[in-house]
UniProtKB/TrEMBL annotation:
<feature type="transmembrane region" description="Helical">
    <location>
        <begin position="18"/>
        <end position="46"/>
    </location>
</feature>
<protein>
    <submittedName>
        <fullName>Cation transporter</fullName>
    </submittedName>
</protein>
<dbReference type="InterPro" id="IPR058533">
    <property type="entry name" value="Cation_efflux_TM"/>
</dbReference>
<dbReference type="InterPro" id="IPR036837">
    <property type="entry name" value="Cation_efflux_CTD_sf"/>
</dbReference>
<dbReference type="InterPro" id="IPR027470">
    <property type="entry name" value="Cation_efflux_CTD"/>
</dbReference>
<keyword id="KW-0406">Ion transport</keyword>
<keyword id="KW-1133">Transmembrane helix</keyword>
<dbReference type="InterPro" id="IPR002524">
    <property type="entry name" value="Cation_efflux"/>
</dbReference>
<feature type="domain" description="Cation efflux protein cytoplasmic">
    <location>
        <begin position="214"/>
        <end position="292"/>
    </location>
</feature>
<keyword id="KW-0812">Transmembrane</keyword>
<feature type="transmembrane region" description="Helical">
    <location>
        <begin position="52"/>
        <end position="70"/>
    </location>
</feature>
<feature type="transmembrane region" description="Helical">
    <location>
        <begin position="153"/>
        <end position="179"/>
    </location>
</feature>
<dbReference type="InterPro" id="IPR027469">
    <property type="entry name" value="Cation_efflux_TMD_sf"/>
</dbReference>
<keyword id="KW-0813">Transport</keyword>
<dbReference type="Pfam" id="PF01545">
    <property type="entry name" value="Cation_efflux"/>
</dbReference>
<dbReference type="InterPro" id="IPR050681">
    <property type="entry name" value="CDF/SLC30A"/>
</dbReference>
<feature type="transmembrane region" description="Helical">
    <location>
        <begin position="120"/>
        <end position="141"/>
    </location>
</feature>
């Protein structure tokens, strides 16, 4: 006995336009900074361009995942491609982690062997990159909590913004003092900011892929609510997982009074169970097996 839903619409799907806009901005910033690196000879700008390119790839992954996630369910993929969003979020987390480690290591290397840069041109192209990234941040700010994918995209643009600010700070210090090690010092700080956030995003994505119960859902409270309903004797084989952002699902075996199977009360009880979950725990998709006492004795031990 269950409750059907359309799984084609995901939390990220309604923000495809935002992702497409941010992707276009990121590609533009990449092109501008590559030109700037060639013109000024700035390794910092070239590294930042690589950073932007990697983040643009992450946004492209997120956008592609939303297109896949919007495809309808089929006989083989009963939830459609909704899980593609989480796979993309995991890839984004790996990319961000790699970028953070690279920025940190490269910053250490440049502390030992600083590179000569032309601070004026570096600042000019850094400002262009900063303005573009700020537009991207503004576009994604309100949607950043809609899903892991949107969070990943927002973090990528935010790290680009931090890098642009770092480029400008380094350019100003070098121009005013000639202290070329300002560039790698800022790079190390940026690396220290990127890595913890990337690890957090990756941990959340992996948790969903491993079908861990959502952190905001208390299984003990669910048991208490369900067993508190009239005619419910017990609950077992309770599973709660997240298919994709905004789509938790629950299944359980519910032991009920034998009379429910004779007096026609089972449908009403099923409605009560699903209303309880949707109202108290925001779980709209639930599947219950109603069973009489003693039925669990006939089930495989792993289902008790």
């Amino acid at each position: 006995m269950g409750h059907g839903h359309d799984h084609g619409h995901t939390a990220t799907g309604s923000h495809r336009g935002l992702l497409a806009g941010v992707l276009a901005i990121s590609v533009g910033i990449f092109a501008v900074e590559v030109v700037g690196a060639i013109v000024t000879g700035s390794l910092a700008l070239l590294a930042d361009a690589g950073h932007v390119l990697a983040d643009a790839g992450g946004v492209a992954l997120a956008l592609g995942a939303t297109l896949l996630a919007a495809r309808p369910a089929s006989g083989r993929r009963t939830f459609g491609w909704a899980r593609a969003e989480i796979l993309a979020a995991a890839v984004n987390g790996l990319i961000l982690s790699g970028i953070g480690v690279y920025v940190f290591i490269e910053g250490i290397r440049r502390l030992v062997d600083p590179a000569d840069v032309e601070p004026g041109g570096m600042a000019l192209f850094g400002v262009i990159g900063l303005v573009g990234n700020l537009i991207g941040v503004a576009l994604l700010y309100r949607a950043r909590s809609a899903s892991l994918n949107m969070k990943g995209a927002f973090l990528e643009v935010a790290t680009d913004t931090a890098t642009s600010v770092g480029v400008l700070i380094a350019a100003a210090v070098i121009a005013w003092t000639g202290f070329t090690r300002a560039d790698p010092m800022v790079s190390v700080l940026i690396g220290l900011i990127i890595v913890p956030r990337a690890v957090k995003l990756l941990r959340e994505a992996v948790s969903i892929l491993l079908e861990t119960a959502p952190a905001d859902i208390d299984l003990d409270q669910i048991r208490a609510h369900i067993t508190g309903l009239d005619h419910v004797k017990d609950i077992h084989d309770l599973h709660v997982l997240t298919v994709t952002s905004g789509l938790p699902v629950l299944s359980a075996h519910v032991v009920v009074d034998d009379s429910c199977f004779h007096d026609g009360h089972a449908p009403q009880l099923l409605d009560s169970l699903q209303t309880c979950l949707a109202g108290h725990f925001d779980v709209e998709h639930s599947t219950f097996q109603l069973e009489p006492a003693g039925h669990a004795d006939h089930e495989h031990p792993t289902h008790r």
